[in-house]
């Protein structure tokens, strides 16, 4: 019997940016989400009818966020999608009012001393 | 602070205080220096992997130019998470090793609390690029010497001299496989980042001389 005509070397069978309709950048808001931007489901903004119109990848991301607050990096790892693709899809979800993104871009300054002390104490207590 | 008004206004910055906060720390160093091991030993989750497609940043990467065969190159980054408390978590990112992926470092280091540069004393030169990178960008970092079994032991000061580190940059001897040792490295980094931050604040608010 012949083997498969493709193997892992052929790359993904669906080119990743096909899921975004060829877009490589998020929509009008245009923010390039930080890897640690946190994504939460916007419970006020969504209804199930809206959601039915979303593609499977969009719904998969929403499902992951619904379970718990997720960083962009975690979403990409859990959904097994490249980060660039996840950024575009999240842009759609944000525009559609399905999610909220906290601190979408990295802050210019370090958190204050109180937070740093909390981090140190938290690490020691691990 | 008073009661939280969960108003409908699209007021993006208003709830910044109560919004969950995530901080990132970079883990850099040469190939095989123990980056993923360190991330794994302190992370509460199994290290995850994200992939970035090179085609997306194609203009930044010229290596693939002129390559005849179509390739889908991905760069993988391993990362882990530590939850300090509800609403405050720490993410550790192992930086991709090869120089040509430095555009990813630029993104990762934006807003980063600081970095850990893992050093292997058998190949100390492997961590020179990382040391240079963080020094030039004034990103606080500590050098963590991963004490591999069988490698000759060096003192922290010997390593600091060999790497020609700026005065004050901490050097910590560690075992990347050991959770407590990894924690200690992170504690030293956060303490140091706090000191650097405070020093810069003082510098910016109180110029001792000169017209204003």
From TrEMBL, chain A:
One Pfam entry name: DUF742
Family annotation (InterPro entries): DUF742
PANTHER family: DUF742 DOMAIN-CONTAINING PROTEIN
UniProt name for this protein: DUF742 domain-containing protein
Natural source organism: Streptomyces cirratus
Classification of source organism: Bacteria, Bacillati, Actinomycetota, Actinomycetes, Kitasatosporales
TrEMBL record, chain B:
Keyword Hydrolase: yes
Source taxon at top rank: Bacteria
Keywords: ATP-binding, GTP-binding, Hydrolase, Nucleotide-binding
GO molecular-function terms, A-Z: ATP binding
Pfam families for the chain: ATP_bind_1 (PF03029)
InterPro entries cross-referenced by the UniProt entry: Gliding_Motility_GTPase (IPR052705), Gpn (IPR004130), P-loop_NTPase (IPR027417)
CDD domains: Ras_like_GTPase (cd00882)
The family this protein is said to belong to: Belongs to the GPN-loop GTPase family.
UniProt name for this protein: ATP-binding protein
Native species: Streptomyces cirratus
């Amino acid at each position: 019997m012949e083997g498969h005509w493709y193997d892992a070397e052929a790359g993904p069978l669906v080119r990743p940016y096909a899921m975004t309709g060829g877009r490589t950048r998020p929509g009008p808001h245009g923010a390039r989400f930080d890897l640690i931007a946190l994504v939460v489901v916007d419970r006020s903004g969504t209804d199930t009818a809206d959601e039915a119109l979303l593609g499977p990848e969009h719904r998969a991301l929403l499902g992951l966020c619904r379970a718990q607050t997720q960083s962009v990096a975690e979403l990409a790892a859990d959904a097994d999608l490249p980060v660039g693709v996840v950024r575009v899809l999240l842009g759609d979800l944000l525009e559609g009012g399905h999610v909220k993104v906290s601190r979408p871009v990295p802050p210019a300054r370090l958190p204050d001393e109180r937070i740093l002390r909390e981090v140190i104490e938290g690490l020691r207590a691990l | 602070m008073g009661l939280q008004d969960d108003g409908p206004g699209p007021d993006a910055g208003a709830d910044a205080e109560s919004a969950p906060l995530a901080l990132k720390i970079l883990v850099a160093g040469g190939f095989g220096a123990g980056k993923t091991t360190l991330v794994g030993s302190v992370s509460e989750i199994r290290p995850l992997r994200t992939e970035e497609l090179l085609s997306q940043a194609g203009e930044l990467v010229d290596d693939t130019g002129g390559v005849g065969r179509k390739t889908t190159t991905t760069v993988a980054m391993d990362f882990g998470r530590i939850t300090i408390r509800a609403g405050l978590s720490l993410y550790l990112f192992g930086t991709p090793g090869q120089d040509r992926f430095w555009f990813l470092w630029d993104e990762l280091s934006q807003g980063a609390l600081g970095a850990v540069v893992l050093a292997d004393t058998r190949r100390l030169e492997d961590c020179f690029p990382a040391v240079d990178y963080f020094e030039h960008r004034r990103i606080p970092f500590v050098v963590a010497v991963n004490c591999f079994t069988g490698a000759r032991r060096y003192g922290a000061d010997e390593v600091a001299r060999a790497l020609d580190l700026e005065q004050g940059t901490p050097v910590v001897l560690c075992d990347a496989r050991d959770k407590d040792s990894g924690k200690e490295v992170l504690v030293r980094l956060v303490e140091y980042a706090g000191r650097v931050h405070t020093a810069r604040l003082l510098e910016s608010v109180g110029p001792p001389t000169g017209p204003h």
